[in-house]
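Morning F.,

Quick status update on the modeling queue. The single chain you submitted on Monday has been processed. Sequence for confirmation:
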Amino acid sequence: MSDSPIRRLKKRSATRNVDVDVPLGVLVVVTVSVLLSVFPHHPEQALREALFTVELHRSLSEEGRQACDHLVEALNWLDARPESRDLRWALRSLWHRLGGPACIEAHQQADIDRVLSVLDEHAPSGVLEDIAALEAALSRLYAAPPSSTVELMTIHKSKGLEFDVVILPGLGNRGRNDDRPLLAWQRLQQHMLFGPKPQRSGGDEQRLYDYLCGVQKQALSEELDRLLYVALTRAKGELHLFAVAKMNSKDDLKPDAGSFLERLWPVVAPDFEAAELLDESDAEAPMRVPLAPRLRGFSATLNPLWQPLLTEESALQRVQRQSENAVLEDNIEERAVGIVFHELMERLGRQQGSKRLIEDRARLEGALRQRLRHHCHPEPGLEASLARVLKLLDNTLDCEQGQWILRSYDWQASEQTIRRRMGGQWQTLILDRAFVDPAEGQPRCWIVDYKTAEAKGALEDFFAQQVERYANKMQIYREALRATGLEYPISAALYFPAHQRLLCLDDING
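C-alpha cells below.
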C-alpha cells in the first residue's frame, strides 16, 4: 500500500530537519475536507466557527484532529499579530507557517506568486476592497504547466540563448509585404526626409520616392540577414531546416523572393533538386474553410437574457444608499466646492508640486475652474465658487493651524482609505488628513476633517452644531485607525478654513 500524502509529507519534513510531529501545508486541505464532512450535521455553523469548536473534532480521525490543531494554532498566532490586519502580509505569513512551500514543486511556486500578485492588486493598502472582483480575477488564472524540454519562441526572443537541437520551420514563407508604402521616409542626422508616393511617374518626386524606398528595402534586407544569422547559430548540436520551394512557369525550382530560403538557396539548392517532387493536390487540406457559406434555412431560438436574482437589501446598505442620495440632493454648487477644496488639500498634503502650482495663480485658477466643471458645477455662479475655493485656500495657508495641518511629517496621509467590517458588510472610510505630530517627544496621531461650511448666524452655535453632527463620525475614524495597530494616542479635529478655526474633539472618549 502506498504512503498517504501526510505520511509522505512527514518523511520529507524529516529530511529537512522539520519536526515530524507537525503536519505542513497539505494538512490545510485535509482540514477543509474533513470539516466540510461535518457540515451536514451542523449546517448552521461557519467553517471558522466549526474549526474552533472542539466538540466537532471528536468525530474526526487522528490525522484530521492533528490537522485542525495545527491550523488553529497558526490562526491564533496570526490573530495575535498586529501586522495581520494587512491581508497581503497575513496570507503570506500563514502560507509559510503552515509549511506551504515544502509541499509544492519548484515550478508551482510561480503559480503561488501569481495568486499573491493578484491579491496585491486588489488589496493595495492591505485591505481587500472588492472580494467579488478578486474572485473573478482568480477564476481567470490557470496553473502553468511543468517546465518542458521543448520551447517555442520567435527568433528575436532566442537572441543570446543556445539549445541542443533547433528546428526552424517555414523558411520558404515570405515575410513583410513588399508593396510600396504611400509615404517613404528616412532620418538624416537631425532631419527627417519624407517622400510621398507620386501620382504620376517621372520627375524629381518619383526619383526621391524611389530612392527612399530603395534605402528602406536595403535596410529590411540587412535586418533579415541578421535574423537569419541569429536563427542558424542557436544550435549546439543539431539544426533542422524546413522549407517548401515551388516550380515557376519555366519549370525551374525557385524559392519565394524575400524569404529566408532565398538567402540559403546557394547552399541548399542541390538538396531541393534531389528531393522528391510533391503534387499540390496531395497536400490539399480536407478541413479547409469553405469560401462560401453553406448554411441553408438556418433558424435558432434564443432564450431571454438571464437575470440575476434580486437580493434583499440589508439595513446597512439601505442607510448607505439613503446617505448617498442625500448628498446628491444637496446644493450642487456647495458639493462641487467641497470636493475641489478636498482635492486641493490632498495635493498640498502630499507635496505633489503644490508650491509651483500655488505660485502660478493663473494656472491654479484655470485648474480649479476645470475641476469645478468636472464635478458638474453649472456655469452661472462658477466664478463665485472659484473665488470661494481660492479664499478657503488662502485662509488655510495664512492660518497657523492650517500650516500645522499641511506641514510635512514622517508619517502622514491624505485622503487615506480604511476598510472595516460592520454589520456583515464592508464599510469604506476616508480620512481627509492624518499625521503623527512628534510634539516635543510625545508623538500623537491627529485625524483632521476639512469642513467648508460657513456660519450663517452665531459663530459658537454653528461650531456646537458641527461638533454634534460629526462627533460620532470622528469617533468611528479613531476606532478604525486604532484597529490598524497604531500605538500612538489619537486625537480628532474639525478644521473650518472659512473661519480659520480648528475644533479639537478630545472630549470624545477613547
